[in-house]
What does this fold into?
Amino acid sequence: MLTILFDGIAYGMLLFILAVGLSVTMGLMNFINLAHGAFAMVGGYITVVLMQQFGVPFLLCLPVAFAGAGLLGALLERTLYRPMYAKPHLDQVLFSMGLTFMAVAATDYFMGSQQQIMQLPQWLRGRTEWGTGGPFELGMGHYRLFIIAVCAALTVGLQYILAQTRFGSRLRASVDDARVAAGLGIHVNVVFAATFAVGSGLAGLGGALGAEVLGLEPTFPLKFMVYFLIVVAVGGTSSITGPLLAALLLGVADVAGKYYVPKLGAFMVYSLMLVILLWRPQGLFVRKGGR
Amino acid sequence: MKAMQDSLLAPSRLKAWEPALWLVAFAAPWLLPGHALIVNEMAIVALFAVSLDLILGYAGVVSLGHAAFFGFGAYTAALFAKLVMPDPVIGLWVGMAAATALGALCSLTILRGSDLTRLMVTLGMALLLLELANKLDGLTGGSDGLQGVVMGPVLGRFEFDLMGQTAAWYALSVLFVLFALARRLVHSPLGATLKAVRDNPLRAMAIGIAVQRRLAVVYTLAAGVAGAAGALLAQTSGFASLDVFALDRSADVMLMLVIGGVGWLYGGVLGAVVFKLLHDVISGITPQYWTFWIGLFLVVLMLLGRDRVLKPWAAWGKPKAQGESA
Amino acid sequence: MQKRFFLRTLAGAMVLASAGTAMAQDKFKIGLILPMTGPFASTGKQIEAAARLYMAQNGDTVAGKKVELIVKDDTSAPDVTKRIAQELVVNDKVSVLAGFGLTPLALATAPIATQSKTPLVVMAAATSSITEASPFIIRTSFTLPQAAVAIADWAPNNGIKKVVTLVADYGPGIDAEKYFKDRLTFNGGQVIDSLRVPMRNPDFAPFLQKVRDLKPDAVYVFVPSGAGAALMKQFAERGMDKAGIKLIGTGDITDDDILNSMGEVANGVVTSHHYSASHNSALNKKFVAAFEKANNGLRPNFMAVGGYDGMRVIYEAAKTTQGAGGQALLDAMKGQVFESPRGPMFIDAQTRDVVHNIYIRKVEKVNGQLYNQEFSTIKDVKDPGKTK
It folds into this structure.
């Protein structure tokens, strides 16, 4: 049982890292970016290519994946996304879907359609077991421990940036009301660009971390888009803790559901999401006055 | 006074090109017998798009799960034909009724929340139905799909043929009838209140329009129309499988609607025709990478704006967007 | 390769555009409907490459007519596939429909084959019931029951009595589970639990954990090719081999397409299947070498061999009927006996299904690459799904 909890938390943390960029982008720029999964895929493929063809160690690949996806995000934001900010939501949805299609087909063309398989370094492949069996046995795969550690560190870092730095307060001001923030002299455009880049970078990092657990192939963005959207919808777009708790909840529910009642399978996640959204339409964790 | 009345009533008047369009549509299966099948497919999808337009364009409800009703209508009609009687028209009614009932039930869920909430709730419903259909494989055939659906002749006389002409005319007729009804609805006082709700729900509530009830009504009606489209699909292809509930269906139909233009019933029809044509042509040229060109088309369309693409003379010097340049 | 492909499909598109002009007299057209996009795109690629290889090796003329291969993406939607098949038959006047990666697509298209009397050659889909959907369906791929029964026979003789089955929740998976269970129980073994994994499953962790907690001798796995790698890695990550649980399954989990990149975790896994790229025959070695050469070193897998043999069946039948189609072509396909890269095989004249050898193989490293090494052969396995 504890093992299942552990697995669920690891899965949830991974989802959080993947989805947090989307949540902040939606809350900040009110832009529904369905192409978010494509940035995750880019990060994953960067890592795989670096490891397989250039022999770069795994740990080094992670920041490169972050930087790569972030750069791509910044580039696209400046060129393609910016004209779309003022357009209605539907156009944004269509636009980002179009980008996703292009990303999927381009990846298929350059990298092939098969699953990409990563070889983890030896120190990440082990497993530690505590307890002797029964419900309180805790088995922790080292890779999942690694994921939890990295994601926890990132969460703490993000929360710190958001709450304690000037950039964070500028970001929060822009989320609450972009016009007033601009009126106060905050360069909202710069904030947008930086946030989008960081959000995409985080997605790329999530893709790199998740390639081992979730698999990586050209249709990755389409497969996982639904999960990211669920995290954002349930967690709300006005904070970081919201999506974090939502992701953890969903991760644990999914894993536990499949373990204890495998017949229900995927029902668990969807039903849970429906119940939560019907009960609290704005998401579970919304600041009063937030959007 | 007269001028103002005229301008308000103008959208509901029959335009000259409308009858012409329908005539061409009905003549198509006869003029192009080799393409009757894709005309059939276009008609079904156009009907589906029109049903989505009712809630999206006229009531402002963003839904990524409209396929729930499409699929429900499809499976109901298929099961009806298999287990009760193979008459297509009665099966169509049954499919529509079932989808309407489901729509009434689901309309309770979309009343609250933001765009994103509605998006996810509708999506969740569609996915739940998909899982349900998968689990009840004794009834639905599970992931293999429901086969053995043999349809009787339409109205007792017209057999479904291999060329697909009967299917195309059947689908086009249903599309025509439901479209005419939808048009009537949209230009009626009810339709006017819906547009008010779409544009500003708060203000609409302030002047006494029962917003919740209106939304529920239009959602139910749209579900029924979507169910009809699904029933048509099951009947003309003799088959129903899990992908009728899939996210792809809901997403594709939203794409079509936005391409054609939301808030304008013909938008659904136009978008369906354009999208299907593009898909077929590009897929014929490059079966593997056609998604890339469709994606490019969408991105360019959205960036340049639909008006500039459809009326390039209005944008001096801007090149017309080409999606299929290989 | 790309340019030729593009020109050929352009030619195919032009034929499509000129509906009604009957050029069928001097051409023999084959409509190849494959998953070219989506999660099963690698299947489509393999089959198309194999089909083109066959044409390259055996010429593109048969019985005096030019062979034309029209490749279409099935978009994984049965109604679209059915429409494409209908258009191919009615507009392009194909003599044969072929391909079909997924069961619902083949089942939806079956009535077209029957109505238009066009033979339909299934090169990939593996559910037993497909050949019964129409008298015009021939299969050259394999059926899951063939592989499942073989490993259910092997397991009890090798110390595996208690098994947990873990399959993907769709047609072939359910077939694999059922036939394995029935056969294992018949052989005196026991299936402790049957777990089904949803198709869109992101994480195998909870299912593998449950298997581990049940402590069987082995876990029998079937997942679509591609997911096998993730499953095996998580199997190792969870320490299941150390807990004494073996991994067995049908060959889909050690798909030649990606086997080599799976790494150490795949080593020693025992599976049953009809084809291994390392099958020791002169014909296979020639096939593999030619395939790798034409496709940038891509190793052919069981899907490719299904496509290759499908083309063989079509070509030979066309030679017998002098290029005619319909019932005569179907009859010429039934009962064909020949040597395939997988080994000897024939198309059963009654069931129209494939009868071939099933091999038990173990993953081993040969010349630095991982291969499925065959160590046991069960000859001429008919589809158990039909003899019931």
User: Anything to note?
Assistant: Residues 155 and 291 of chain C are 33 Å apart (CA to CA). Confidence is low (pLDDT under 50) at residues 1-24 of chain C.
